[in-house]
Each structure stands twice: as C-alpha cells, then as structure tokens.
Amino acid sequence: MQRAPNTLLEGPILRSLMALAIPIALANILQAAYQLIDAFWVGRLGGSAVAAVSVSTPVMFLSIGLGVGLAIAGSTLVAQYFGARNQEMVDHVAAQTLLMVVLVSVVLGTAGYVAAPSLLHVMGVAPDVYDGAIGFLRVSFVGLVFNFFFFMFQSLMRGVGEAKLPVYIVLGTVILNFILDPLFIFGWGPIPPMGVMGAALATVGTQSIAAAIGLAVLFSGRYGIHLAWRDFIPDRAYIKRAFLLGFPASIEQSARALGLTVLTFLITSFGTLTVAAYGVGSTILQVVMIPAMGLSMSVSTLVGQNIGAGNIDRAARIGRLGSWLGFGILSGLGVIAFFTASQLVAFFVPNDPDVIAAGATYLRIMSLSWGLLGAQFCMTGVLRASGNMVMTMMLTLVSQWVLQFPLAYVLSMHTSLHQMGIWWAFPISNFLIVMITVAVYAKGDWKTKRLTTPDEALVERIAEEVIQEEGR
Q1: Is residue 460 exposed (0-12), middle (13-18) or buried (19+ Cβ within 10 Å)?
Q2: What is the pTM of this model?
Q3: What are the backbone dihedrals phi and psi of residue 128, each rounded to the nearest 5 degrees, phi first?
Q4: Which range (64-68, 301-305, 362-366) has the least confidence?
C-alpha cells in the first residue's frame, strides 16, 4: 500500500504528542462544554435542579461504560493496523466496531429508559430532585446511540492520527447547544419550559447532528478510513476477537462508573447540599481532566501506532514523557483551583452561598491529587494501547472498589469527618493507585504485546473472504 510517510512514527516525540494532544484536548473541552452549558443554565434553577443532574450523571456513565470497551478495542486495533500500514484491516475494524457499538447502545438505551424510575428509587433520590432526574435520565437514554456513535467516530479518527476534524464538528454542535439549552429549559414562544429535561433534549439533538456528520466523513474516505456498506456485514471472527479484547475494557469502564454510582448512594445520604456540592465539584474536575485525557489519548495513539510499526523503544519514550507532562500540567491546575475554589463554584451556582461553601471545600481537598491523576492517565494509556486491557481493568477495580469506596465509607460513616471523609478518600486513593500503576508500568510487560501479530493470518483470511464475496 502506498501512503505518505507517517510523521507520528518519527521525529521529535514532544512535537508529535502536541500535534495530537492539543486538538484532542480542544475537542474534549468542546465536548465537555455540553455538560458545562447544561450546568450553567440548570444552576439558574437552583440546588435541586443541580442535584437532579448530579444523580443522573453516574448512571449515564455506567451505561456508557458497558459499551465503551468495544470502542477502546476498535480504536486500539485501528491505531496498530494504521501503524503497520494495513488499510484493509483499518477499514474492516472500523466498520465492525461501529456496528457493535450501535447495537449495544440501542439495547442499553432501551433498558435504561425502562429501568430509570427504579434506579432513582434505589438511589434514594429526594422528592424535590426526582422529577428533574427522571426526565433528564430518560431523554439521555434515548440519545445514547448518538452519544456512542460520535464517541466511536472520535476514537477512530484519533486511531489514524486525525485529531483536528472532530474539533470543528464539536464546535458547531456546542454553539447550537448553547442556543437550544435556555430555549428548552426556560421556554420561549411556542416552546414550553421543560426544566432539567430540556437540557437533555438540547444535548441529544445536537449530538445526533454530530453523529450524522461523522458517518458522512467515514464514508467519504478523506481522513484515513473509507467505509462502504458491505464493510458492515457481520464478521464473526473479528467480533469474537474484539469482544475478548474489549470485554476487560468494558468491565474497567463500567466498574469505574458503577463505583461513582455507588458513591452517589453514599453522598445522597448526607442530603441535597452535599449532592449539589459534589455535582458542581465533579463538573469542574471534568474540565480540569481534559488536558490529562487529551494527553493520555495522544499517548495511546502514538504508542499504538509505534507498537504496530515495531518501534518499541520510541513507544517507551512516549510513555515516559507523557506521564511527566501529565503530572506537571495537572499539578499546576490543582494549585490554581485550590486558591480560586469559591469563585469557580460560584460561576455555576451564583445564588446559593451554602453550595458555594460546600463545593469549594470539596474542590480544595480534591485538587491536591490532580497531578497524580495526570501521570496515571498517561501510564494507563500506554497499557491500553498495547492491548493490556486486563491489567488496566484490574487497576480500575483496585482503585474504585478496594481503595476509594471503602475509604469513603469508613471515613464518612465511622469517623467525625462525615461528608468530609468522602472528599478525603479521593486524594488518598489516588496516591495509592498511582504508586501501584508506576510499579506495573515500570515492570515493562506491556512492551511484549502486539495485537497485529496474534491470529493475524486468521483475521486477514476472513477479511479477504468478505472482500471477495462482495466482488471488491
């Protein structure tokens, strides 16, 4: 296959990292703007409305986590095949992964819509929060398929090193969301006020547009992936392989989301004020984590492509540099957040002094460990890019279920700290899991993993048979 030289496989590592990390971070910032815009307008409705979104968010994360493992598997394979210059398998993997992600999202969205009332009752949501939460949840579940599809589109674009295009798509939809949010939340003219549910409706509408644009781009073939309808014929060999690779990643993501959901049960036991403080603080954390996620995704893409090309030493250097950058950038942001906590919280809930005070306390405690999170994101990005999904799954299980939640429960329920014990569980558990991650990463077992080598002949043969059957 003839192709222009891949600049991500050679030259200065820092330049390659920044070439991917900056547009990825920008796209993530814009993607997070959906939540920020929702939080900004919903905050004008009061603490109960903020709490309605806060209790809904972990449930949605859990749903997304169940299907996102397949997306991680697909994007990892795409990166390695792209580095190995195997265009046929890049297209094949992309189509099959999209097919699986759409089917999974439809099943999860339907199940979530039906189960939403029961979930909120189990969580013990207060009556003044329930109505907003049920509307927000059900609309979000209806739009899950669009969320999944565009997430997969972004992952595929990152896998082939095309990080700029998603920025433009998300920018347009975010601007549209900013216009639609107040219209649907507060109403205007023939549009009735829909409160918290209106925020979800605006987001789902704009994400459906983004998904349609992404589909058109993949079929155009102008950005490293060229799909045709015949590529979506189910390939049992690949589906089995992707499932085996993606299942641990799904467990990892769903365990992380389930941990947040269970933690929300604990938080709701301390009342609406604590839930609102957690919701605003978590929204700010999502924004702060964007540089770390962008850097982690760029590290994962670069490492995946270099492993596919056989450049293991360069992959190791990428991981080291990315981890130090993540630690430095997030530490700096943590210092800024510590000293401006009240102002940051007041931006989202300007008219509630109690929420501002409680949210600022949570934010100051949480910001102490942001640098550690930045380093860990990059190290797990390396492990994931090499295909070590089981190890990243185990690290997440230990982080959420062995460290964070037990610490939060003990410190809040069996000490005088009360809800402050939940807040302190975050930096303590983050420090411990980073130490474990450093030990796993330094051992270097990930260097021997290459997904484009095992069973290559089988996958290639299946792909060729599909192509021949369609007369391509």
Answers
A1: middle
A2: 0.70
A3: -75, -10
A4: 64-68
